[in-house]
Amino acid sequence: MDLFEAAGADDAGVPAVGASAPLAVRMRPSSLDEVLGQEHLLSTGSPLRRLVEPEPEGRRIAPSSVVLWGPPGTGKTTLAYLVAHGSGRRFTELSAVTAGVKDVREVVEAARRRLVTSGEETVLFIDEVHRFSKSQQDALLPSVENRWVTLVAATTENPSFSVISPLLSRSLLLTLRPLAEEHVRTLVHRALTDPRGLGGALTLAPDAEDHLVRLAGADARKALTILEASAGAADAAGSDDITLDVVEKAVDVAAVRYDRAGDQHYDVKSAFIKSMRGSDVDAALHYLARMVVAGEDPRFIARRIVIAAAEDVGMADPSALQTAVAAAQAVALIGMPEARIILAEAVVHVATAPKSNAAYKAVDAAIADVRAGKAGPVPPHLRDAHYAGAKQHGHGVEYRYAHDHPHGIVAQQYAPDELDGARYYQPTGHGHERDITARLERIRQILSGR
Q1: Model confidence over 34-71: pLDDT tens digits?
Q2: How far is C-alpha 311 from the chain's CA centre?
Q3: What DSSP line would sit under 264-285, residue for residue?
Q4: Confidence label for 352 from pLDDT (cuts 50, 70 and 90)
Q5: Which of 47, 150, 153 is nearest to 91 (CA)?
Q6: Which H/E stretch holds residue 389?
Q7: Are 444 and 329 in contact (CB under 8 A)?
Q8: pTM here?
Q9: Count H helices, E strands: the chain?
Q10: What is the C-alpha radius of gyration for the chain, rounded to an integer number of angstroms?
Q11: DSSP code at position 30
């Protein structure tokens, strides 16, 4: 029996779904077996599965409230509906965008009355709970603590920063993972053939499917919305086939010839990196745009920028790496489409920064020596001396503490005998490395005793 056509669904407060409902609503999973990409939350005996599946007769475990944290289109609303339906509890939904404290208190009071008078339990689903003010979240505390409702709160933002601590401490925090490409494809194939969806009436061309999946990213709802729009466009044209041209027209986005598993992926990535290295900021932004429009994972793009900041900018502008790392963290926090702005800022910094690969070359030269067997014993005065008997082996003896000497530098040998005097890092005259060059020369003179 379908989740939303189940007997008593309307009475239980779970929205009934008709044939005119959006495809994303019609295709909402009717059981945990249809949920994609969240296997880590659905293992046997997991808290979420216990919430969804009715308890065996004779056993009764009090339900726990949960906070579902994950990107858009990963199934947070679906899981809330499954909790209500599978457990036989009444379902009540509030949107944090429109509900106020008064609405919260009215819903909670109604749930408490039902629990007292008839024993009927309530699942209270709050979408975008991070938009609730502190006072609105405070109003939920008594109902959660006394279990007048089973709260299922959904958020796309880190609950540690957006949900008050007392509410978090009374709930289980479950993190939903972004859907992988194969999950989105499975969902699209299901919608094409399932009677709840298109029922096999239309076919989807492979290149159209690739483009649709790229546009959707990891968002299941977006994938089904694009599919529905494309199906409508094909039907209006009197065609049974959803082609690439139909998908493009339906969503008004031109397909970029870019296969994330093929040559174009590697060619564009290569051109992107080389443009940043070559300081052509406009070309770098062009290739960034191609990857963004093609639906490339923004985290992948951010990682390439971090590598470029370290490999190609290096110590000529150490702040470029700080910008790139901050951008990577912000992209993971924010997601698309806003992440494009963060990526662009990092690309501009890396592309316009002075360039040096001296640090990159230095570590590779040092690694080459180690692999060639040039790795003699650590000089005795540098060895660990924090144990009894170390001194009798000469460990730490005659070690000179740098801070006891002028400039914080003292002449003594640090490298193994075989590598004493080796020079790996050779700074350029670009950017910050101009200042490093003069200082490093003096440091090396002092270390050698000159």
Answers
A1: 899 998 888 887 878 877 776 655 445 556 789 999 88
A2: 25
A3: HHHHHHHHHHHHHHTT-HHHHH
A4: very high
A5: 150
A6: none
A7: no
A8: 0.57
A9: 18, 7
A10: 30
A11: S
